[in-house]
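Please, structure for the following, as tokens.
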Amino acid sequence: MSFSVICQACGARLKLPPGSVKKKARCPKCNAKINLGAALDVSAYLPTMAKPAKPASATARVAAPPVSSPTVPFEREEDPLPYPAPKPIVAPTLAQTTHCEVLSLDDDSPPDAKNPLAGKPAPAVPPFRIPARVTADSAALFTGPCEAVVVPHGLFLESVPYRPFLYVPIGLPIETVGRRSLVMSLPDKRTVSVELLGANAGRLADDVAAFLVGERPMPEAREYRRNPKWLLWLALIFALGLAVGPVVMSQTTELGLETGLLIGAGFAGVGLLANAMVVLLTRMSVFGKVFTMTVIGGAMTGVFLFGATAYLAGKREAEQPKPDPPPPPPVTPMPPLPIVPPPKPPDPKTPNPDPPRRGLATAADAAYRDGFFRFDEGSEDVTAIAVSADCSVMVVGHKNGTTRVWRFDNATFDAFGTGPRADGPITRIQFDSTGSIVYLSCTGGMVAGAWSDPPEVPVKIPGDPVVIFPFPKEERFAALRGNAPVLRMVPTATIKKPVGPVGKGKGFLLTTAKDETIPIDAKGAFAASPAKPTFLAWHTTGKLIAGQPDGSIVSWGATGPAGVVVSREHRAPVRAWAASPATWEFATGDDKGIVGLWYQKAMIPKTFTATTAAVTHLSFSPTGAHLAVADAAGAVWIWDVATTKQVVKTTRPTPVKAMAFGPTDDLLLLSDGKAVELWSVSELGKRE
């Protein structure tokens, strides 16, 4: 079926060629440009326009049907689906001199006689295109990437613009599977599964399903647009404006500036919360959001004025002089009452003394009393130690992949608890943001599990190495795979309750592409590192950094993709690093004994010479005030972070294999064998 359009310049009625997908053309009479977008929207998405497809896949492309005549004035695109070949149209002479397609004159009957849709304006609601992917088709006709086009009367799927191959009308059974997948049952008993892609895919899947079953109107693109940044600034300005009234009132009355600031801060905080909810949670237009914030500001101003009026009225009433009270009536004297002696109080009883309570000494108590405390030995050498952010739990990793858990409120005679196991020697231990999950760096990746309830089959993220940046509900990790970092997300629920096959018979659940998702803010695949990194870590600002063999440090930022050298202060390979649990400080140590302190989100470190041997371990104190440094020669140093001055130095008989501060700034955990020792810093300084 062909459709007619009207040239706005000369009024000629022109024919839209069948199968045309170009949005721009020229009039053959006056050579004026014509926008065909509205005509394509009207003609392409009719309930009868979707053509059934022959079996094909997204990767096996099918060549377009041959054109019957070389005089067709438009180009056919490669398409995985067969479409009927258009009728040949003689190309006008203007096609040789212009870049746009030249339409032919419409010599058919007037639009009302043959084509009632010709000449009609575009629909009130334009088609809404959503990137999608057909994941399953019971008829095996099509799978692969496509676009879902939502129109007022249903949903179309197309792999080439304006050439739909599937139509789903309103009223068919629709099911939502997962976060962003739709399963549609067609009248011919065909079942098609479509996964929506892009931002807001989960929300779009719910809205499209509700639209197709008739529970809501058609979704529009404006509902899913990101709020402009100036809207958040406007919300802040409106909220700060609410604080002006209380501050001014405090200066004109006896409330005082401090009281006025407190009241103003309360009004501003409530206003900012309400405005932020309007901007971030509602689906109104920008004008509607501004109007709603204005109404909220007016309502809160009204509440303030009402309260201020009541306060001033009450104060004025209190300041008015009160009339003298009437004289009291004469009092008739009563006869005296007989004096009754007070009852004798009972003899006081001596309270029973509380039974004596015997305090049980903890490991910290023993360290303060004796200078150090030695914990029980493990089955293998200690290779890693970590203390939780709240300084309540210590996890010790061993060479054979086992871990032991110690609570710092335990008595000295208590035994270690059993923690999750890793796949080989543990080189680093990290807690998540809640302190309930530990991540164990080991051979070929990182194992994760709850320390209080170790899973029988823990999750292992493959990579060499893998570093974690914890989020509230899912963990962002970077893994070095094939000398190039990859950025992925893993849901915390998958780590807490792992479900799936066991990988390679070692008793670990290896994550796959189904378990790992690409963050929505990722900017593409990360560029490969120039050489195999000497370390991989997340900076405290959330940027991924890695060390190079020459001592330089490369950063891919938070989302990639290109790596940039951000520091050349180190002149030797950097292998040790640490992040402060309480501040934004970050530390690096190289093989020549140089330590770099990255102060307050800085991306260039301030270096100083901490030792003459290679730095093997770094650890910040719980408050971030001190940094412990251990080297390959057995020396242990404690430095003041603010001044980079030495606080303590001691030399061990053998080099330290694991080190961590905790549970306080004046206690240090050290291990050079199968046991862990808890040292008082003051006593450690005496052992130099």
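The two ends are 94 Å apart (CA to CA). The mean pLDDT is 79.
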